[in-house]
Amino acid sequence: LHSDVDKGDGKVKYVLTGEGATSIFTIDENTGDIHATKRLDREAQPYYTLQAQAVDRVTNIPVEPRSEFVVKVQDINDNEPKFLDGPYLAGVPEMSPLGTMVVQVAATDADDPTYGNSARVVYSITHGQPYFSVEPKT
Predict the structure, then answer these.
(1) Between the N and C ends of the chain, which has fewer C-beta atoms within 10 Å?
(2) What is the mean pLDDT of each run of 10 residues along the chain (138 residues)?
(3) Which domains are assigned to the chain?
(4) Do 55 and 18 touch, CB atoms closer than 8 A?
């Protein structure tokens, strides 16, 4: 954050308010640099709304209007898919034709589906080949 009014002579100070100001985010009152002081978790809170303002260091009178901005937390692949109704039990009649559907499972992932592939679920089986196969997408 930087104000055009700030000539670098120390007369301007930067102030930060809003969600997480001082507890999660800090601002260097001299430079306007904003830093996160803790690790952010998108699943706990996907964004923070903050307000910043440049004020006269002596009088605390604003030298510019307050600016509002949103810090959007970008997701990482920190959640594994979870099966909703597991464990699943299924049966298949003896001598069933190839391709008989035995069971359909469903898993979800708490990661952000709009950012990267972190929330994409792909199904596979670890035991049972060649007798069973799985459709990777469904």
Answers:
(1) C
(2) 90 96 95 95 94 96 95 91 89 94 93 88 91 92
(3) 12-72 (2.60.40.60), 76-137 (2.60.40.60)
(4) no
pLDDT of residue 115: 85
pTM of the model: 0.69
Rg of the Cα trace of the chain?
Answer: 26
d(C-alpha 34, C-alpha 38), whole Å: 13
Residue 129, amino acid: Q
61: which 2 tokens? 């009178």
Residue type, 83: F
**Whether the Cβ atoms of residue 101 and residue 88 lie closer than 8 Å to each other:** no
Question: Which of 97, 105, 111 lies closest to 125, judged by CA?
Answer: 105
Q: What is the pLDDT of residue 122?
A: 94
Who contacts 102 (Cβ-Cβ below 8 Å, separation ≥6)? 90, 91, 92, 132
In degrees, rounded to 5, the angle at the alpha carbon of residue 66 between the alpha carbons of residues 63 and 71 is 135
Among 75, 82, 81, 80, residue whose Cα is nearest residue 116: 75
